[in-house]
Structure formats: structure tokens, C-alpha cells
Task: structure prediction
Amino acid sequence: QVQLVESGGGLVQAGGSLRLSCAASGRTFSNYNMAWFRQAPGKEREFVAAISWSGGSTYSANSVKGRFTISRDNAKNTVYLQMNSLEPEDTAVYYCAAGSRINNYYAPSGYNYWGRGTQVTVSS
Result:
């Protein structure tokens, strides 16, 4: 089992920045590929960004490219999502996910473990 706990969400004005963190415990963190997804009210959960187990490969949704950056620190068992130039459309609950064998980084079904989420609200 892997336990994931997100933090860093909050209320921010459009154009502002937030840094989300996801702390992992349980099995060896460096064995897992990690990702961030988000879900807005009335919408399906959507892919935001992912990073391979080594940190050597990253993937981002087109909607956040150039604004959001995913990174990880395997020594701290933590994955981060730096969010800049936030827009009201980024308002959602953000979830951290972990998967050991990923065929498709963009699909929620590939991830075995999920956190409970952290709310991000961007005001206009």
C-alpha cells in the first residue's frame, strides 16, 4: 500500500501561483510513477501532469503547458506541482496518484493509489 497526502491548495487570485505537494508513505516511493489529476464540479477527472519514477520523463496536459511544472524528490518521498499564471478555469480538487506500471500516463485507470485531494480555487 502507498498512502498519499496532498497539501498546498487554497484560494488565489488569477495570475497568482501555488505549489502543491504530495507526501507518500508505505512502499518505496522511487518505484512509482506519479501524477496529478484534477476534478472540477460536474466534470470528469482530468489529467494534469505526470512524472516517471526516476524523474527523467514528464508529461503535461496542453491546458497547463508552460504554466505548471511537476517535479519529485525521491529522498523526501514527495512530488510537487508548481502552478503559475493560474486561471479561474484551474479551479478544481487536485489529486495525487501513484502507479508502478504505467502504459498510459494520461489515464486515471493506470494508477493504483490516490490521495484525498486538495482544493484549488482561483478567483477572477
Notes: Residues 14 and 87 are 5 Å apart (CA to CA). The chain has a mean pLDDT of 96. The longest strand covers residues 18-26.
